[in-house]
Amino acid sequence: MDGARRNLVGLDRGEFAAAVAEIGEKPFRAKQLWHWVYHQGATDFEAMTTMAKPLRARLAERFEIRRPAVTTVQTSQDRSRKWLLRFDDGNEVETVFIPEEDRGALCVSSQVGCTLKCSFCHTGTQVLVRNLTAPEIVGQLMLARDSYGEWPSPGGDRLLSNIVLMGMGEPLYNYEAVAKALRIVMDNEGIAISKRRITLSTAGLVPLMRRCGEELGVNLAVSLHAARDDLRDELVPLNRKYPLAELMAACRDYPGANNARRITFEYVMLKGVNDSPADARQLVRLVQGIPAKFNLIPFNKWPGAAYECSPAPAIQKFSAILNENGLSAPIRVPRGRDILAACGQLKSESERVRKSGRDTRSVAAVDESSATMP
Ligand code: SAH
């Protein structure tokens, strides 16, 4: 596009070097620029006081430093915050920040929609699916940092300390962009979030698990949800391609997993489906020999869902059985209920509004379903 300025957000070190070379500047400028964009969080070249004014002006002619556009932002009474973001092509995704006592995790999306079609997950009902780009993934985090005033990167004691790739989409189906985004985010001279504070959640894309561990070294979470193939085939159709035996082997081989750094198995509690004491005991056998911990997720019901959430006593019993067998199994506390941070209703709400306004452009992009973000 003539005259369009290139966004620096989401470009990696090599691309920064090329950008600087393009305007005839020396390589050390790339390092300076990197510092301003990713460490200081600058959004305006005028703030870049280590560069002379004419250089700032030349940069501003060719480049911009832009976050994704925010359609809606809501803050919960428990301080959870949820953004509905809109990208240049009109597609939208959600990002949610979930604070804990002295830190917090940002739940990042990796795709618009999802191809996996897990039977209990609302995201799978969306029509359109596309991968997010690295800039769109990094942009989610930078925007959240802006919102909490957490620039420059202050070290270990910030609120936005952790990242979980548990938003919309299957991150390992978008491996290249996710890997590029995470390398930018982990870079010590920039945003500097350590791999130990990043968790990637997968439904079990076995062929990419080892690569993820070797190349990125992030924590792994696996959406398990069943201890038997027949049930998992139904809940997580990806299981038909990569059944439990293969998935467990990939977990056993996951680089960097050990007793101090366990693989998290996510397990959504579905009433009468996967929540019996026998299911819990079968799980114990399944994960034997794997440095494992569980995360029990009360099912978040959505309109039209074929499942109910297990009753609290059943979930507690389930957790107790895992505990008795040496497996940590906390029950995830629903957060941000008042802003529907749990199941993407903000997105469906904004789409409903637009539909009634006959804005067919965005209606074509996604159906009226919402994303699922437990
Ligand atoms: N595709 C990746 C990451 C996105 S889903 C994965 O499958 O891990 C993040 C987590 O939310 C997964 O464990 C998913 O199974 C769970 N989840 C999806 N819909 C849910 C719902 N309605 N209630 C509770 N958890 C849900």
Description:
Helix content is 33%, strand content 16%. It has 374 residues and is of the alpha/beta class. The protein has 2 domains: 59 residues, DNA polymerase, domain 1 (Orthogonal Bundle), CATH 1.10.150; 300 residues, Aldolase class I (TIM Barrel, Alpha-Beta Barrel). Helix 5 links the parallel strand 9 and strand 10. Helix 9 runs parallel beside helix 10. The two termini are 39 Å apart. The chain binds S-adenosyl-L-homocysteine. The site of S-adenosyl-L-homocysteine has 18 residues, from strand 10 and strand 12.
Strand and helix map with partners:
Blueprint (H helix, E strand, L loop, with lengths): L5 E2 L5 H10 L5 H12 L13 H10 E2 L4 E7 L5 E6 L5 E8 L4 E4 L3 E2 L17 E2 L2 H14 L14 E4 L9 H12 L11 E5 L3 H10 L3 E5 L5 H7 L8 H9 L10 E7 L7 H10 L5 E7 L13 H13 L20 H12 L3 H6 L9
Parallel strand pairs: 1-2, 6-9, 9-10, 10-11, 11-12, 12-13
Antiparallel strand pairs: 3-4, 4-5, 5-6, 7-8
The site of S-adenosyl-L-homocysteine has 18 residues, from β10 and β12.
What summary fits the major beta sheet? 9 strands, mixed
- CATH superfamily grouping of the largest domain: Aldolase class I
Overall spatial form: elongated
Secondary-structure content class: alpha/beta
Neighbour order of strands in the largest sheet: 3-4-5-6-9-10-11-12-13
Fraction of residues in helices?
25-40%
Task: Indicate the proportion of strand residues.
Answer: 15-25%
Mind telling me which CATH architecture of the largest domain this is?
Answer: Alpha-Beta Barrel
